[in-house]
Every structure is written in structure tokens, then in C-alpha cells.
DNA sequence: CTCTTGATGTGAGATTTTGCACAATGGCCG
DNA sequence: CGGCCATTGTGCAAAATCTCACATCAAGAG
């Protein structure tokens, strides 16, 4: 039988697409991935990849083998979860994935509370836009703004938060609404509900800044560049920002908590879940 | 994530029960298995095995992990089959598992025919009593005397053969049936249909030889030791044996061909299957 | 067209892993 | 009770593997 570690490298290469990317996720050198895949080709007697200088493409045989081998990866992740679930006690490291501003503005300020309740838990808090895969254990617990649909997850709605328009107090004073300039997301976020809502309000008025980063919008609005659609939890407590009410129906987004079923009962994970619930109650 | 090859060694150890046995099936030294399992224990942070001097027992955690990891092994075997199935052409090595006497008396004599039809096929013919696992690729094609029940197999009935009583001609001449001495299987084969049939015929008469080996029975019967229940294909063509008819309803056993679904369409496997069908037609 | 960038290929040295040989353990059988 | 035997544990030399560094290559930007 083929070396399972060779299969591991190959499956990762098949998913990542390049030797270098696979090497990064595996934490090894790209030369190692190349050699292990070559070893797998020898042991199976099949040509699995086309080695191009820009990327390595899977051959038809490679696609077939990758499809058959990927259940191995599922099982391997299940082993990792089982190992974590088997560990007793409330100690351990728990990785939380959340939207970046949510991580910094909502979760991080309250982490002290969790720390004092459960001193044995170490937290890894990752603010990232892309959805971390819970199945692949990129995170143990995830906060999402959309209801997660992956199989095998336990999902719970934690609450919701609203958006309003905000600007610097001095800007709102001196600028009549018909002359508002706006700050919005760029094309990568054009489909998000709050951006759709904002565009409807903007109408034919001017957009002076497009960015993919919410913090940048906050900073620009504070500086008096224009009006931005911000979560109320960001804008309402900030003396450098002032809400501007509009006639349109206000928008709100739901916050979902997701955790893999295998980890739901693990004490440290449970503790983190309860902590996150309490974070959004207030 | 844990090293997949460590998992491979651990799963094998879990199935085989001892380091040495696992080492044999993996083709490595027992020290390697021990070290890799230790490495897995370190990486998972769990104690997986109890190291006794006579055997290594799985802990409860070990059993859990083994249960979760064994789907990995299934997938790995599926990869092996997929690799074999992907190879083009009718060349290749095909492993046949069959009852020992069947292999030597029925299949082996006709292998020349297969060889001349398909010169590119190399045959590995394994005569063994225990049922080779097709799922674990211990054989590509198996002949069985019982209908196989494992999942994922393609099964076909090839035919059947009968049993009769045979003895040396001189023995049958000088011995009246009520004084027959018999040659039969030992306890390990007591449940086989032909042995049950033979016992009913024997009644209270004497059994002078019990053995687990059919060839030994043939040799003893030829030598005039007594009467044995033999497959007709063995006894009828042998001038040193003569059939003795009895009133009891004759018994026959079915011969089944089994192959894994994934390999059924592979050209060399197909060729071997057709060859085996033709072997049992005559 | 050239430069930059991110990819793959290749060789040498360092590290890790492996196999071997032998010692130790403990159940089984007479 | 004592020898037997298969199994596990350990240290060292050998072999395989990995990392690192550098060369090469192709696509896209300026």
C-alpha cells in the first residue's frame, strides 16, 4: 500500500493547486511536496500531475485518485476532533474565527471575563473575512453573519445588530443631507446586505471612498470625509461619530455561532460558546 | 494535524493486536511501529495503548481513535483499487485466492491456457483456507465455497461440484461396507457440509484418520487406509481410487467467484474472471 | 521590452527515521 | 516450578528524508 503521508501531501496539493501553497499549509518545503507526490506516482504507477512552471495541474488520473483519497482527509480531521474531544478537563486552546471588526470590537474587549472564569483556556482569536472551515479545523468555533450550511455543524443564532448612517458631528452640522458624500465598500463586498441597503439610500449622491475595510470606513467618517453605514455597536458609543436617521427601513444582520458536532461537548469549547453567547446578550 | 503514516501504523496495530503482527503486515520492524505509535500519542496528547510484555492493549481512548481512524484505512484501500483500475491495458498482476486443493487441482493445471491468451498477465495464485479479504486487497479475485457476504463485492456463482466416497480398489474389494474404516476432517472442519454428510454415512463405524488437509485424505485413501469423502473431480479421474456409491442423497457444494466492484472492469481482472468461469464450465 | 513576482527544479548538508542486534518481560506447557 | 517462546524495549550505525539555498522559468505589470 502507498505511504499514507504521500497521500496526505498529494490530497493537499490537489486542493491547494500549487506545490508552494500545499507546502505552506503542510508546514514543509515545496521540494518535499514535490518529492512525495513523485513517490506516490511511482508507487501507484500513474502520472498524477502535470508539472508546469506556473502551477501543477492534476491529470485525469490525478483527479480520480484525489477524489477517492479526499475521504481519507475527512477521516483524518475526524481523528483530530476525536483526539481533542477525548481530552479531559476544561483546559485547552480554543480557536475562534469571527469577522475582523467583530473580533476586535465585541469579543476582544470582553475576553478578560472569560479568562477569569476559566483560567485554563487559551484563546486564539482570528479575525478574517474568509469563512474558516470548521470541518478542516481551521477554527473550533466560528461567528458568522450568514447561517452556516456546511454539514456536520451545530449552529445557533446568537442575536443581531443593526446598521445606521454615521458621520463626524461637525460634518453633519454643516452639510445638508442632499449634499452628503458617502463612504462604502468596494466591489468585493457589493453583495453584502448593508452595502445594498447603503446604495439604495445614496441614490445619485456621491461616493468619495470605497474600501474593503470597515476600520478604514470608521476612520474616514470620524475624520469628516463623509457618511458611512456602520454597525450601531461601533457608532453609538463613539463621541467622534453621530448617527444620521433616515426614512428607509433600518437593516440588521443576524449573528450565528457554529461549532462542529464532534467538539460541541468538549468542556473548553462549551465554555467558549457560553462566553460568546453572553458577549452578544448585552 | 497528526502524521498520517503514524495513523496508518496505529490503525494496523489496533487491528492486529500486537506490535510484531502489525510490523509484519506493514513490512517494517516492530520498533518502528512502537515508535510511530508513541509519536501519535505525543501529537494527540492521549495515551492510546497499554504496553504489556505479551501484547499491547488499546486504551479506551485508543479504541475511540482507532474507530474514527479506520475509515481512513477504507479510503486508503479504495485509493489502491482506484490506482489499479486506472492503469490501461490488459497487462498486470492479478492475485487469485482459492481453497488449496481447488487451486492445485482445478486452476493450476489450466493456467497455461490463460497464459497463452493473455501473455501480459502475471498470476499470483494463493491457496489458503482462511478467506482472503478482498476489501483489504489481499487478493483481487477469490473463489469461495460459501456465498461471500462482504460489502462492496461483485459475486457470481460459477457452478458446483459433488462429493462421493472413495477408497483404493483393492480395499473396496476385500472390505464389506459394514466394516469400512473412514478418513475424515478434524474438529476444525467439523461444520463443513461434506463432513456433516460423511458423519451421517459413517454412523457407528470407525474413523481411523482425522486430518485438516484434503491432500492427506487423498493419499491415505489411495494407500488403502479406508474410505474418504472426496470431490468427484479428484476421485473420478484417479485410477488408484474407486467410487463407492451410497444410498444417501449425494451432496454438492457451490463455487462462488468474488471480486471487488472497483476492480471488476479492470481488463486483466476481467480476463482472469473469464478464465475462472471457463475453468469451471468443463 | 524589461522587471517583478511567484512558481518549480536541483543539489548538498543536516536531521530524522529506520533496521538490526540483543536484553528483558511474562504467559504457557509440561 | 522451570524452561520455552513470542512479544516488547533499547542503543547504535545506516539509510532515507527534509530543509535550505540557489537556479530556472513563465506570466503579468509598467
Q: What would you say about this model in short?
A:
The structure is a homodimer of 282-residue chains. With 282 residues, chain A is an alpha/beta fold. Chain A has three domains: 4-75, Arc Repressor Mutant, subunit A; 92-159 and 254-281, D-Maltodextrin-Binding Protein, domain 2 (3-Layer(aba) Sandwich); 161-251, 3-Layer(aba) Sandwich (D-Maltodextrin-Binding Protein, domain 2), CATH 3.40.190.
Task: Name the chain pair with the biggest interface and residue counts per chain.
Answer: A-B, 29 and 29 residues
Count of strand segments of chain A: 11
The biggest sheet of chain A amounts to:
9 strands, mixed
Distance between the termini of chain A: 56 Å
* CATH fold description of the largest domain in chain A: D-Maltodextrin-Binding Protein, domain 2
CATH superfamily of the largest domain in chain A: Periplasmic binding protein-like II
Roughly what is the average pLDDT of chain A, rounded to an integer?
92
Order of helices and strands of chain A: HHHEEHEHHEEEHEHEHEHEEH
Radius of gyration of chain A (Å) = 24 Å
Layout of secondary structure:
The structure is a homodimer of 282-residue chains.
Chain A (H helix, E strand, L loop, with lengths): L3 H13 L2 H8 L3 H15 L4 E3 L4 E3 L1 H27 L5 E7 L1 H8 L3 H7 L3 E7 L13 E4 L8 E15 L1 H6 L6 E5 L7 H10 L3 E6 L2 H9 L4 E5 H4 L6 E3 L7 E9 L6 H15 L1
Parallel strand pairs in A: 3-4, 3-5, 7-8, 7-9
Antiparallel strand pairs in A: 1-2, 5-11, 6-9, 6-10, 6-11
Helix pairs in contact in A: 1-2, 1-3, 1-4, 2-3
Chain B binds a DNA duplex (30 and 30 nucleotides) through helix 2 and helix 3.
Amino acid at each position: 500500500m502507498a505511504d499514507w503521508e504521500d497521500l496526505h501531501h498529494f490530497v493537499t496539493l490537489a486542493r491547494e493547486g500549487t506545490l508552494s501553497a500545499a507546502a505552506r499549509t503542510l508546514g514543509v518545503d515545496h521540494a518535499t511536496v514535490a518529492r512525495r507526490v513523485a513517490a506516490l506516482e511511482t508507487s501507484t504507477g500513474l502520472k498524477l500531475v502535470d508539472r508546469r512552471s506556473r502551477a501543477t495541474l492534476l491529470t485525469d488520473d490525478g483527479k480520480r485518485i484525489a477524489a477517492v483519497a479526499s475521504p481519507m482527509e475527512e477521516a483524518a480531521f475526524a481523528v483530530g476532533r476525536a483526539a481533542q474531544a477525548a481530552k479531559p478537563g476544561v483546559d485547552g486552546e480554543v480557536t475562534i474565527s469571527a469577522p475582523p471588526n467583530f473580533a476586535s470590537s465585541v469579543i476582544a474587549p470582553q475576553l478578560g471575563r472569560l479568562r477569569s472564569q476559566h483560567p485554563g483556556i487559551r484563546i486564539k482569536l482570528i479575525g478574517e473575512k474568509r469563512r474558516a472551515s470548521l470541518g478542516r479545523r481551521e477554527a473550533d468555533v466560528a461567528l458568522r453573519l450568514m447561517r452556516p450550511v456546511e454539514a456536520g455543524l451545530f449552529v445557533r443564532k446568537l442575536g443581531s445588530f443593526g446598521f445606521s448612517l454615521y458621520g463626524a458631528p461637525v460634518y453633519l452640522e454643516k452639510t445638508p443631507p442632499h449634499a452628503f458624500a458617502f463612504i462604502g465598500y468596494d466591489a468585493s463586498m457589493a453583495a453584502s446586505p448593508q452595502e445594498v441597503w447603503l446604495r439604495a439610500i445614496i441614490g445619485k449622491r456621491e461616493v468619495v471612498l470605497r474600501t474593503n475595510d470597515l476600520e478604514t470606513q470608521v476612520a474616514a467618517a470620524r475624520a469628516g470625509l463623509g457618511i458611512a453605514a456602520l454597525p450601531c455597536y461601533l457608532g453609538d458609543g463613539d463621541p467622534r461619530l453621530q448617527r444620521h436617521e433616515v426614512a428607509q427601513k433600518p437593516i440588521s444582520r443576524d449573528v450565528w455561532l457554529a461549532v462542529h458536532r464532534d467538539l460541541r461537548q468538549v468542556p473548553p469549547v462549551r465554555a467558549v460558546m457560553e462566553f460568546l453567547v453572553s458577549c452578544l446578550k448585552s
